[in-house]
Specification:
This protein has about 180 residues and is mostly helical. The longest helix has 28 residues. It is elongated, with a radius of gyration of 24 Å.
Length: about 180
């Protein structure tokens, strides 16, 4: 089997995906922050927690030159930062959606149906690309739907709406390599 075409597709595909340059930028920035922090702060990673865990292990094993305090501090800061960021993100996810949708979802409705090109007025096209949705209030699931949205930002959808959600295809070359 000639694997060269698969290899070429696997190499060229990510360059067209806009997330790849962003991930490379994030990885590069993380590497730079860690390089500066390890050299400038005395063997403490600020962006990459696995390094702190390794160095904490060295400190706990009483390897000379490694102290427990800086790595525990970095891990605690990471945990606090991740918790705060998660809460802020959850707050904005549940509040940044359309106020009508937020009203229905907060009150326990289920997203029942997506209606394509039902709002073709200029404002409808601008705000929702012409889509409208229907909500269903099922007394048996209202409380669970409300809790899912209020606590996790999860929108409960009908099976028909879930069928519209297409999972992302693997990058070209990955499925072919596994076959």
């Amino acid at each position: 089997m000639d694997r060269e075409p698969v290899r070429q597709r696997a190499i060229s595909y990510p360059l067209r995906d806009p997330i790849v340059p962003l991930l490379l930028l994030i990885a590069t920035t993380t590497g730079l922050v860690d390089a500066v922090s390890v050299l400038g702060l005395g063997l403490v990673f600020c962006a990459n927690m696995p390094g702190n865990i390794v160095f904490l292990g060295f400190a706990l094993a009483e390897i000379p030159g490694f102290n427990v305090a800086p790595h525990v501090t970095a891990l605690a800061g990471f945990i606090v930062g991740a918790t705060v960021s998660g809460r802020i993100g959850k707050y904005y996810v549940t509040r940044s959606i359309d106020p009508v949708a937020r009203f229905h979802l907060s009150n326990g409705a289920r997203l029942e149906r997506v209606n394509w090109l039902r709002n073709v007025a200029p404002r409808g096209i601008e705000e929702s690309y012409g889509m409208m949705v229907n909500y269903l209030y099922d007394p048996k699931t209202i409380e669970a739907n409300h809790e899912a949205f209020a606590h996790d930002g999860m929108v409960v959808c009908s099976p028909e709406v879930n069928a519209l959600i297409v999972p992302a295809a693997p990058p070209v070359g990955i499925a072919a390599d596994r076959a």
